[in-house]
Amino acid sequence: MVRSSCGEATPGMWRREAGTALRRAEALPEERSTPHAIVAGVQIPHVPTEWAPHAHAMHELVWVRGGTLTSRVADRVFTVFEGSGLWMPAGVVHGGRATAGAEFHDAFFAPDRTPFAFGEPKAITMTPLLESLLTHLSRTDLDTEARARAESVVFDVLQPAERQFALHLPGDARIDPIAEALLDDPADGRSLEEWARSLEISDRTITRAFRHTTGLSFAQWRQMLRVHRALMLLSDGFDVTTVSETLGYRQPSSFIAAFRRVMGTTPGAFFDPADGTPGRVRNAVSDVQNA
User: DSSP characters for 114-167?
Assistant: First the structure.
């Protein structure tokens, strides 16, 4: 059985899971007058956790192990899975949700001591070296010279992912009801023609509006949304057949094909890397994307 997703629907985010803990952002490193360029830490929410929209005076990099993080930033929804991270520039308002039991890692970067600047949120490739360095910097017993050496290597190896994986929300009153309905229930299988009749507009208008606002057709956008949701379910331990049924696919093979079109590989290969390391995923996103 699929666990219940009952709860209040928040525009532009998935339906809130039952038992979700709502939290405000905790005290930030800059509020503690840290002398370091990078401050890293980890927490493990034992229940699904949602952070209210907030912003930081420092840049933030978040990544997870053993689960997923979904973040809403303006008109985009990002899904962070193992092997990827999300860079949030200082001052950018964002909210987020982490699945229960996920190791939630974050690192804060002092803007005046960070030798690069990304003007917008970026997916980051979380290589084993980068993760190890940031874990090393979470220690409290490092002397100044050791910390400076590690920070300089972080600055050298931290790079945006080759392909950015984000779901762009339409922001068009004519088709926003479609987007909100699908975010609320990704399995909603109404066709383009059925939506056109329901909204009393032409299917051509819907097609043009999706292309103009998201760069994707209606079918591609729904496929992208379902893959975002699939990553969360698969990371949470659900099997491919259950995920396929939950997302409205008639056959698991149809879901696997859709997943491959977006992510460049099958769900099984994505969550079971060639090196055999359990609990890790490949950081690969195909050219069918919504950046």
Answer: -S---SS-EEEE--HHHHHHHHHHT-S---HHHHHHHHHHHHHH--B-SS--EE
Task: Look up residue 181 and give its amino acid.
Answer: A
Q: Cα(225)–Cα(15) distance, rounded to whole angstroms? A: 13
Query: Quick check: helix, strand or coil at residue 54?
Result: strand
Separation between Cα atoms, residue 96 and residue 3, nearest integer Å: 20
Q: Would you say 101 and 45 are in contact if contact means Cβ atoms under 8 Å apart? A: yes
pLDDT digits (tens, 9 = 90+) for 15-54: 777 888 888 876 555 545 567 899 999 999 888 889 999 9
What is the tens place of the pLDDT at every residue in 120-150? 999 999 999 999 999 999 999 999 999 999 9
* SS3 state at 97: strand
The pTM for the full model equals 0.84
User: How far apart (Å, rounded) are the C-alpha atoms in residues 194 and 201?
Assistant: 10
Q: How confident is the model at residue 167 (pLDDT cuts 50, 70, 90)?
A: very high
The alpha carbon of residue 252 and the mean position of all alpha carbons in its chain are separated, in whole angstroms, by 23
What was the pLDDT predicted at 204? Answer: 97
Q: Residue with structure tokens 């949700």?
A: 97
Q: Say how many CA atoms lie within 13 Å of 36 toward its Cβ.
A: 26
Q: What does residue 16 show for φ and ψ, rounded to 5 degrees?
A: -70, 130
φ, ψ at 22 (rounded to 5°)? -100, 125
- Token code pair at residue 263: 């992510």
Do 183 and 16 contact (CB within 8 A), yes or no?
no
- C-beta separation of 14 from 48 below 8 A: no
Higher-pLDDT residue of 162 and 277 is: 162
On the 0-12 / 13-18 / 19+ scale of CB atoms within 10 A, 153 is middle
